[in-house]
Amino acid sequence: MNKDTPAGTLYVVATPIGNLDDISQRAIRVLADVRLIASEDTRRTGRLLRRLGIRTPLTSYYREREQHKAELLLRRLLDGEDIALVSDAGTPGISDPGAVLVRLARDNRIRVVPVPGPSALTAAVSAAGLDETPFYFGGFLPARQEARKKFLTPLAAMPCALVFYESPHRIGRSLADCLQVLGDRPALLFRELTKLHEECLQGSLSELLARTDEGIRGELVLVIHGAPADVRERPGEIDELIRWYRDRAGSSLKDAVRRISADLAISRSRIYQRALAIWKENEAPSDD
Ligand code: SAM
Known about the structure:
This protein is 42% helix and 17% strand. The protein is α/β, with parallel strands linked by helices.
């Protein structure tokens, strides 16, 4: 690294998820101005750049070689080059590669600048008309049924909407498991957002399951409404929620009690007794 040259900037740039007109003016300017664009899919990004008349060189940056490529790109950033990171489509780092390079850059005091824009996640949530402000984004559900059900179980009492990415060949099995674990809740299935055949199927999980029975094509986002109040009050569901805060969110006992009590509108003292018992499950047995 040349000590006299200031380090470059890493721009994390969102690109369209279908409709190419969704690219922002700022994204176009950044993609044209940087020295290099690191892309998950250089062919797809190449098509976008040609359409925009941008001639910035491309290099590949995909999941399987993320660590190696991140180290190479870091050297160039330290040498003063500005780099843009893009994914196949949408926002990098959201169920897409990006996190390794971003972390490495931050660890080395490189400036990381998001250039926000399209994402299937925000597009679906914005058009879902949810009553609840908070939502939980789970990325892709696990591929195997056992893991999927285990993943869904602690979410059954969550008072917020649940959002998942899904593939057309797995949506039927995922809907069936959601129905079984979460109950028959209202849901929306967004298909091909911003594209020619965009549509939104809306109904209960069992209705969506029936409607996708004969197959469905395209890219999908599933939005499921949060747990109804009666589910939240069931003791088993609250226990799962407490375990979720302990094991997945890494919360302290106090924090978990405070948040669950606020979310479910149940008194802290009621939650505290259950939470204390659940926290003790993890303690090693004493000698006496
Ligand atoms: N980073 C991307 C983003 O910000 O939207 C998501 C990448 S993830 C690998 C791809 C998944 O996002 C697809 O399998 C689908 O579930 C969802 N997705 C992407 N584009 C979509 C679209 N146009 N309509 C519906 N879902 C979409």
